Amino acid sequence: MTKKLLLIDGNSIAFKAFYALYTAMDKFTNPSGLHTSAIYGFNRMLDKVLADEKPTDVLVAFDAGKTTFRTKMYADYKGGRAKTPTELSEQFPFLKELINARGISTYELPDYEADDIIGTLAKKAEEAGDYQVVIVTGDRDLTQLTSDKTTVQVSKKGVTELETYTPKHVEEKLGVKPSQIIEIKGLKGDNSDNYPGVEKVGDKTAVRLVQQFGTIDNLYQNIDQVSGKKLKEHLIHDQAQAERAHTLATINRDAPVTVSLDQLKYQGDNIDKLTDFYERMGFKSFLAKLSVDDQDHADDQADIQYTVLSAKNAAELDQFTDEVTFHLEMSEENYHTSPLVGFAIGQGDKWYVTNDPELLHNQHVIDLLTSKTIKKNVFDAKRTYVGLYRQGIELANVDFDMLLVSYLLNTTNNSNDVGTVAHLHGFYNVKTDEEVYGKGAKRHIDPQSPAFLAHLVHKVKAIDALHDGMFKDLDAHNQSKLYWDIEIKIAFVLAHMEINGIKVDAATLEGMGSKFKERLAEIEQTIFQEAGEEFNIGSPKQLGKILFEKLRLPILKKTKTGYSTSVDVLEKLAPDAPIVQNVLDYRQISKLQSTYVDGLLKVIHPDDSKVHTRYLQTLTQTGRLSSVDPNLQNIPVRSEEGRLIRQAFIPSHPGWQIFSSDYSQIELRVLASITDDQNMQDAFKNGEDIHATTARRIFGLPSNEEVTPELRRQAKAVNFGIVYGISDFGLASNTGITRKQAHQFIERYFEEYPGVKKYTEDIVEFARNHRYVETIAHRRRYLPDINSKSFNLRSFAERTAMNTPIQGSAADIIKIAMINMADAIKDMKTRMLLQVHDELIFEVPDEELDTVKQLIPSVMDSAIHLNVPLKVESHWGKTWYDAK
DNA sequence: GAGATCAGCGCGT
DNA sequence: TTACGTGCTGATCTC
Length: 884
Prior knowledge:
There is one protein chain. The chain is of the alpha/beta class. The protein has 5 domains: 1-167 and 260-290, Rossmann fold (3-Layer(aba) Sandwich), CATH 3.40.50.1010; 176-251, DNA polymerase, domain 1 (Orthogonal Bundle); 306-477, Nucleotidyltransferase, domain 5; 506-608, Taq DNA Polymerase, Chain T, domain 4; 670-777 and 785-797, DNA polymerase, domain 1 (Orthogonal Bundle), CATH 1.10.150.20. The protein is built from 35 helices and 25 strands. The protein has a 6-stranded mixed β-sheet with strand order 3-2-1-4-5-6, with helices on both faces. The protein is globular and about 90 Å long. Residues 295-302 have low confidence and may be disordered. The protein binds a DNA duplex through helix 23, helix 25, strand 18, helix 30 and helix 31. Residues 642-848 form the DNA-directed DNA polymerase family A palm domain. It comes from Lentilactobacillus buchneri subsp. silagei CD034. It holds the Pfam family 5_3_exonuc_N. This is DNA polymerase I. Belongs to the DNA polymerase type-A family.
C-alpha cells in the first residue's frame, strides 16, 4: 500500500498566517496576553490539509536559526529583512506544542533551512518507492521539488487556501519545468532573499532564456546565440552573480538530516493535550470542533444519504406535515435575476435534492412551500421568497431564518454563505460555497456533478442542525421579540418593495448624460491648458503631481500614498489657482456621470423600466439596512446639479405621485428619550428648533430669537458630534473653530444636557462590563475592543458604544413603521418603494393622495412610544425630485 | 492581458 | 482624532 508523506514548511506557513491576520492581531490574544494569530491560522491550515490529504506520515520542518550554509556563502543572504516581530516570535514555542498535540513531529537542523529538510526527505521518500509526497509551504520556490510523485501546495492570500502545483501545472504557469525554476532564479535573482541575478533580467526575459537554453550553464556555453546586445553584455558582466544566485536558490536535497522516514508516522490528535492547549489559547471554535468531530465522525457517511427528487417520487414530500428545511440554490448573487440551479428539501433523516428547478412547479413541492401550517427553515428568507416568487410560488410560514438569526446574535463576521455561518456556530459538516464552487473568475457551478447535490444536502442539514441551538441563543439574548416582531416580518415587506421596484426614466438620464459629457470635455481642455499638459484628471496620483510638483501649490494634507487631493484640500487651494476650481467641477460632474447616470442606466430592467434594488438586511453593524444593485440610499440631494438625478425617478403609472415622508431629527429624539435628559426632552415636547435651542443654551443667550444662523450652524455641528461621539479635535476641524473653543462647547453642552453626559458615561461603562451595547429593540452590537490597550481601538469602541444605541434604535423604529405601513396600505393602490434610513418613499395614485397625507405620517409617528414626540414631514410631486 | 485587490474619492443618512 | 454605508476610477499586484 502506498503511503502519503506530508511535509510542511513551518516557518513560512507561520509567517503567512501571522501576516494574513496582521490587522486582527489584537483580537487573537489569550488571557495571559500571548498573541495567538499565527497559531490559529496554522491550525486552520492543518485542519484543511489533514482532511484533504489524509496523510499517513507528517513532518513540520522549521528553520534552525539565522545562519545557514547559504549565509556562510553569501553574507547578505536574506539580509535587510525586518526583524521578526515579537508578536510572532513569541508564538513559535506554542506552535510547536500545538503541532505535537496534533500527533505530528517537528524537526530542525542547524545550518540548514526548512526547505532543505523538506527537499531531502522528499527525495528519500521518492527513492523509497512506495510514497506519495505532498509539500505545503508559503514559498513558491519550493515548487522546484514537484515531480510525478511530489506535489507542492502553496498557500495563497489566506493560509487555508492552497494552490496545488504538479509538474504540469508548474510548466503551464511558469513556462518552464520544475527543475528549471532555479535557472530562472539564477538569472533574475531574488529580491526578498536579497541576492541579485543578472541586471535588467526579470521574469519575462529569464523565462525566455531558460526556454531557449535550458540551463544557465548551457546559456553561457552558447552566449553568442543570445539576441540583444545589451542583454548579452549584462549576462557576461553578471555571470558570477548568476552562478551564485543559482546555488543559493537550489534546495539542498542531501542535507544531513537525522530523522528517518519511519519516524514520521502521523499519530492523530491527542484529544487531552489538544483540549488543554486550545483552552489555554482561548480557541473556542477549535474546542467546539473537537467535540463536534467526536460526534460527527460516525455519521459522516450516513450524512450524504439523500434521494434525488423527481416527478415520480415527489409525492413522498407529503410525509412532511410539521416542518421542513428548504434551500433554493442560485448561481448568482442578485436573486432578482439569477438563474435557479437546484434546491434541497427535507427534515430529520429524509432529504431530497435536485438540480432541476422545474420541479418547483411540482404540486407536492408547491403545497409544501406555500403551506401555512408547515413551518419552513431556511437560510435568507428574503432571498428565498423572491426566488420562489419569480416562479409564482409564495413561500409561507417561515420559522427559522438561519442568516437572520446569526446576524442578530452577532453582527460581526456574518456572511451570506451557509457554510461560513454554520462554521461560526460550531457546525462543520458543510463546506462553503467558495470551497465547492471556487471564487472570482474561476467560480463555477456544475449542477450535474454529484458534489453539487451533496453540497445542497449538507446545507439544508446544517440549517436543520443549528435550528434549535440558535433559537435558544436568541432567547438567551432576549432577542426573540426582535426576531419575530421586527426582522422576520420586515424581510417580507422588503421583498415586496424590491420586487415592485421603482421606475426610472432612461431618457431623462441619457439627456443629462450627454450634457455632462460635453461639459466634461470642455473642462478637461481648460484644465489641460492650465496644467500645460494632458493627464488623467481622474487619477489622484497624476493630479497631485500636476498641482503640487509642477504648479507648486502648497501641500496641506497627505495620504499614506501621496498628496491628498480631496475636496477640503482643493477648496482651500481654489483661490490660488483657477485650475483647482475646474478640477472640483470636473470631479462633481464625473461623479454624477459615472455613478448615477451610467451606473443607474446599467441596472434598469428592460422589461419594466424599473430598478430593483436589494436591501441587505444582515450587513450593517447598527441594524440599518443597506442597498445595492443599485444603491438607492445615496441618490444626490444636497447639490442642485446632483439633485436633478431625482427627476429620473418617476411613478410607475401615469399621473401618480412620488410621496416621501421623513422623520425629523429622529436620532436626536432617540437621544433625548434614552438619555432621559429633561432639557432636551422639553425642547422637543415644546416643538422647538433643537439646534437653535442648543445654541441658545451653550452660548447663554436669553431666547432662541437671539440665535444667529452661524451660532445655529455651530450648535448643529455639536449636536451631530454628540451623536457620533466626537472629540474636541474633530469638532474643531469640522466647524473651523479652535480646539479650545470646541472643548468649551462640549463642556457647555454637557452642563446644559446633563442627562446626555451621564448617558455617555453609563453606556461606556455598560459596554466595558458586558462587551456589547443594545438598542431599544435589543439589537446587539459587540465591542471587543472596549477594553483594548490601544488608545485608538478603545476610543473607537467607546464612540461606537455611544452611537450604536442611537443609530440602531432609529433603525428599529423605522423598521416597525414599515411593518405597520405595509399592513396599513395593503388594500390600497399606494405602494411603498424605498427606505432611506429615516425616510420612506411611496408611489400614490391621485385619488389616494389625501388619505396618505394623513395615514403615512400617523403610522410613522406612532411606530413606537418615546418620551418625546416623533415628528414626520411629507412632500410629494410628479418625480422624486419634485417631492421636496 | 485579464482578474483581483487596494487606495482615494465622494454620494447618502 | 465624528457614526453607518455603496460604488466609481486608477494603481498595483497576481496569475
